[in-house]
Amino acid sequence: MALDRPDDRSGDRHDESPLTNSLGLPGAPAQTRVVAAMSGGVDSSVVAAMLSREGYDVVGVTLQLYDHGAALARKGACCAGRDIYDARRVAETMGFPHYVLDYESRFREAVIDDFADSYLAGATPIPCVRCNERVKFRDLLDTARELDAQVMATGHYVRRFDGAHGPELHRAADPARDQSYFLFATTREQLARLRFPLGDLASKAETRALAAEFGLGVADKPDSQDICFVPNGDYAAVIEKLRPGAGQPGEIVHLDGRVLGEHQGLIRYTVGQRRGLGISAPEPLHVIRLEPETRRVIVGPREALGLRRIPVAEVNWLGDGDFEDAPEGGWEIEARVRSTRPSAPARVRPLGGGRAEVELAAAEQGVAPGQACVFYAPEGTRVFGGGWITRS
């Protein structure tokens, strides 16, 4: 099966040379070492099995990201004890080596602590992006290099290919499975050494069919749903354990200045939230913003959520040219402000120092600090990068 090919809308396509293999590298598969990042789920398992069946020199690697003894009874989380066992069993079935690496301390510092501190600062973080950015695509890629692997393959549903100006990141062929929003922080240097074999598949059913064809025990394994270190989705309980005293009370205040009640911690609220506010009011109210300095939750009508200008920081640019050397009026893009929202027409203007302002053609509701604003090409499937939404 051919890997990582863009569709006809994705720009310049470089045809595979007869001197390159299906990963776009010189030499036969047997002479090409690939580290397969294996979470124990069906997606990464199929990638490892697929490459092994093609004859690549596959080395499977699974990361132990937290105490897997405590995680054994935790359902719906990746990289837990059961998942490590499942990854090892796939490697045994396909006949390639498999290693488990202890990344607990790195994961805590780079992901879990950032998650807790972001909530305390009134933001709504996305730890899966930070995990990809700071652990899997940085530290694990370094490990792949130490293992003399030419590339690392993952089970993400995105596409990557070599364009006229270097590696490009594209949406997956299946819009329902596309994970490009969570990979916006991937750099060009990382893209050069990453491969995403599932990006061209038409559906998750095709992935499961391949798992069954390879005889993998994970063929029917359910997808993980929760953040791996947050059991049952109870963010507040995890943050209070990490940061005692995080649930300090404060006022719930209407935009017009009325004090409507008291809350038991900013960490229990997110921008756009309507249910569970703990107040009674004659009209529907939403969380408009969080003020960590005053510990106030500001609420108001739905229309007050609309924003057209969004400040972003830590911009990662994957488009052609220098991001700071933008044309007059900024770069024309489509912007996506939440993983559950479609992209919409916008312009992004560089402000220097990795900061920028995104101006949407139409206001979006529920834009929250800590979420990602991901940039896409106005036409086609290419990802232009993105940045982290900050407080104005």
From TrEMBL:
One of its GO terms (cellular component) is cytoplasm. Residues 1-27 are annotated as: Disordered. Keywords: ATP-binding, Cytoplasm, Disulfide bond, Methyltransferase, Nucleotide-binding, RNA-binding, Transferase, tRNA processing, tRNA-binding. GO terms for biological process: methylation; tRNA wobble position uridine thiolation. It comes from the Bacteria. Residues 1-17 have a biased composition (Basic and acidic residues). It catalyses: S-sulfanyl-L-cysteinyl-[protein] + uridine(34) in tRNA + AH2 + ATP = 2-thiouridine(34) in tRNA + L-cysteinyl-[protein] + A + AMP + diphosphate + H(+). It is an enzyme of class 2 (transferase). ATP binds at residues 37-44, 63, 155. GO terms for molecular function: ATP binding; methyltransferase activity; tRNA binding; tRNA-uridine 2-sulfurtransferase activity. InterPro entries: MnmA-like, MnmA-like_C, MnmA-like_central, MnmA-like_central_sf, Rossmann-like_a/b/a_fold. Gene3D superfamilies: Adenine nucleotide alpha hydrolases-like domains, HUPs, Translation factors. Residues 248-300 form the tRNA-specific 2-thiouridylase MnmA-like central domain. It is found in: Cytoplasm. Its EC number is 2.8.1.13. The record marks 156, 371 as: Interaction with tRNA. Disulfide bonds join 131-228. CDD domains: MnmA_TRMU-like. The active site is at residues 131, 228. Residues 177-179 are annotated as: Interaction with tRNA. Residues 310-389 form the tRNA-specific 2-thiouridylase MnmA-like C-terminal domain. Belongs to the MnmA/TRMU family. NCBIfam families: PRK00143.1 (NF001138), trmU (TIGR00420). Catalyzes the 2-thiolation of uridine at the wobble position (U34) of tRNA, leading to the formation of s(2)U34. This is tRNA-specific 2-thiouridylase MnmA. The lineage of its organism: Bacteria, Pseudomonadati, Pseudomonadota, Alphaproteobacteria, Rhodobacterales. The gene is mnmA.
